């Protein structure tokens, strides 16, 4: 079996009296896309920067592609791509020059012109970095991170500040990278992004992992909702009595009902049977699971950053 893309054990990093990372464990297999989620200040960027070799850990073991990012940084750097938070470039350099410069450092780079085109940046290729919009700067930074055909890319909030069309372009590109077997570790505040892209999600808070699994694993907890429409003012107490104990039945607005609890096939059948007994047809029946955002908020007890 190949070494994992990233393996972190007992990672600790302190800044003075602040413990940014507090005994974090994480394992990411090759060829996966892992999304690191967590509230502001949870320790995501610190963790990623330690993996990239930019910061030194105070305690713990970190291996990236089997290498120590600090001691073996020189061997590791050509094999990874890095997109730091907020991009980062010489303000006066033109978009295409910057990408070509980075490409020139790689043994077998992608064609910079093609990459600019894929990321919708061809029309601004002669524009200095400082005059690009925030979203364009982000896309250029992403291009720089992947132009060298890395085996593993670290992307710190890659789509922050992008409009929905640009975000879609980036998502497509990340999907293509993953299909090519590239390992991707990204941080994000967008639950939709994690749900759409990630094979694995790791939620951190206060510098520790508080939950991990696939998006489906994390959202397939017992609680779900069944919604349906019927005539208004059905007797919700009577409906609740027809279900096993513990289900909450509410009329959200006239004629619009919600049942909260574990929605099994038996529950769906009991609801429709009960409606039939009342001589009403349950329409627009919808079974929903909790989204990643709800799970996240419940676990961290905090609002997301917008
Ligand atoms: N250079 C630094 N000096 C002092 N404290 C720092 C430094 N960098 C980060 N911290 C602190 O370490 C903690 C973790 O910060 P980090 O940037 O890793 O969190 P994050 O999860 O990436 O947050 P965000 O979602 O806001 O980017 C925070 O309390 C932060 O204030």
Summarize the structure.
The chain is an alpha/beta fold.
Overall description:
- By secondary structure, this protein is of the alpha/beta class.
- It folds into two domains: 214 residues, P-loop containing nucleotide triphosphate hydrolases (Rossmann fold), CATH 3.40.50.300; 66 residues, Alpha-L RNA-binding motif (Alpha-Beta Plaits, 2-Layer Sandwich).
- Helices cover 32% and strands 27% of the residues.
- The strands form three sheets. It has a six-stranded mixed β-sheet with strand order 5-6-7-3-8-9, sandwiched between helices.
- A hairpin with a 2-residue loop joins strand 1 and strand 2.
- The structure holds adenosine-5'-triphosphate.
- The site of adenosine-5'-triphosphate has 11 residues, from strand 2 and helix 1.
Q: Could you give me the name of the CATH homologous superfamily of the largest domain?
A: P-loop containing nucleotide triphosphate hydrolases
Kindly, what is the distance between the CA atoms of the first and last residues, rounded to a whole number of angstroms?
40 Å
What's the CATH architecture of the largest domain?
Answer: 3-Layer(aba) Sandwich
Instruction: Give the % helix.
Output: 25-40%
Give, in order, the helices and strands: EEEHEHEHHHEHEHEEHEHEEHEH
The percentage of residues in β strands lies in 25-35%
Name the ligand types.
adenosine-5'-triphosphate
**CATH topology-level fold name of the largest domain:** Rossmann fold
User: What count of helical segments does DSSP give?
Assistant: 11
Q: Using DSSP, what is the number of strands?
A: 13
Shape, principal axes of CA atoms: elongated
Residue stretches low in confidence (pLDDT < 50, at least 5 long) are none
Structural class: alpha/beta
Q: Spatial order of the strands in the main sheet? A: 5-6-7-3-8-9
How many domain units? 2
CATH class of the largest domain: Alpha Beta
């Amino acid at each position: 079996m190949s070494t994992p893309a990233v393996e972190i054990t007992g990672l600790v990093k302190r800044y003075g009296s602040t413990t940014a990372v507090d005994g974090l464990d994480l394992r990411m297999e090759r060829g996966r896309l892992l999304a690191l989620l967590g509230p502001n200040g949870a320790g995501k960027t610190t963790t990623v920067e330690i993996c990239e070799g930019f910061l030194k850990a105070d305690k713990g073991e970190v291996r990236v592609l089997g290498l120590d990012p600090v001691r073996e940084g020189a061997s590791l750097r050509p094999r990874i791509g890095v997109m730091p938070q907020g991009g980062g470039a010489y303000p006066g350099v033109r978009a295409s020059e910057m990408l070509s410069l980075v490409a020139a450092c790689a043994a077998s780079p992608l064609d910079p012109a093609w990459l600019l085109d894929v990321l919708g940046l061809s029309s601004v290729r002669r524009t200095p970095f400082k005059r690009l919009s925030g979203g364009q700067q982000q896309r250029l930074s992403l291009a720089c991170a992947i132009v060298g055909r890395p085996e593993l890319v670290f992307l710190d909030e890659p789509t922050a500040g992008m409009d929905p069309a640009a975000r879609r372009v980036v998502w497509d590109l990340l999907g293509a990278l993953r299909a090519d077997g590239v390992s991707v570790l990204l941080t994000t505040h967008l639950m939709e992004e994690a749900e759409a892209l990630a094979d694995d999600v790791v939620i951190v808070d206060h510098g520790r992992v508080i939950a991990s699994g696939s998006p489906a694993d994390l959202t397939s907890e017992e609680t779900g909702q069944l919604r349906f429409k019927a005539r208004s003012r059905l007797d919700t107490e009577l409906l609740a009595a027809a279900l096993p104990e513990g289900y909450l039945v509410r009329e959200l607005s006239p004629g619009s009902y919600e049942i909260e609890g574990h929605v099994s096939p038996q529950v769906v059948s009991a609801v429709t049977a009960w409606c039939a007994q009342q001589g009403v047809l349950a329409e627009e029946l919808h079974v929903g699971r909790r989204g990643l955002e709800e799970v996240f908020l419940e676990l961290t007890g905090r609002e997301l950053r917008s």
